[in-house]
Design brief:
With 178 residues, this protein is mainly α. The protein has helices at 2-32, 40-113, 120-176. Helix content is 91%, strand content 0%. It starts with a helix and ends with a helix.
């Protein structure tokens, strides 16, 4: 029975507190509906305008930041693609340079061997091998030049893309520091 009495008493206390809060809110609302003092409406209007400008600036900055985030993501993908192409070109260039070096070495060996040969059949075979090695050397040299040109082009593209990346980062940093 005492527990029931405490529950009823605490319920009544809560009701009284709730009525006091509602009554206080009613008084406050009633006071705010009255005519404001001179200048307070103008000050309130000016403050609302400033708040609206601040919200608009925030929304614009947020949109620009999001757009720059997308641009940075696209630019990062572009840098990764160019980097992959550059690495592939460098590996291919190393392979062709190695092949060219091997052909040059074999050619030097054959040219060194040629004066010592007295058998006409063997001499003709070595001369033919020398001609073939020179053709291979020319092809390897031409391919090596193409790959060096491609590597240079990709290196320049990489520098350009990294410059764009840096520029976008600078713009993003300036937006976030506002």
């Amino acid at each position: 029975m005492r527990a029931l009495g405490r529950t009823v008493a605490s319920g009544i206390a809560l009701t009284v507190v709730a009525l006091a809060i509602v009554g206080g809110a009613t008084v406050v609302l009633g006071q705010s509906r009255g005519e404001p003092a001179d200048g307070s409406m103008a000050a309130l209007t000016a403050e609302v305008r400033q708040l609206r400008v601040a919200v608009q600036q925030f929304a614009q900055t947020q949109s620009q930041t999001q757009a720059l985030g997308v641009y940075l993501s696209v630019q990062q993908t572009r840098i990764m693609q160019v980097s992959s192409q550059l690495e592939s070109a460098r590996l291919e260039l190393e392979g062709v340079a190695r092949q060219s070096s091997e052909v040059t070495g074999k050619l030097a060996e054959l040219e060194e061997e040629l004066p010592r040969l007295s058998d006409p059949t063997r001499r003709n075979a070595v001369e033919e091998a020398i001609r073939e090695m020179r053709r291979e050397q020319q092809l390897a040299t031409a391919r090596e030049q193409q790959l060096r040109s491609r590597e240079l082009e990709l290196s320049q593209t990489m520098q350009t893309e990294e410059s764009r990346w840096s520029s976008l980062l600078t713009r993003l940093e300036s937006l976030t520091q506002r």
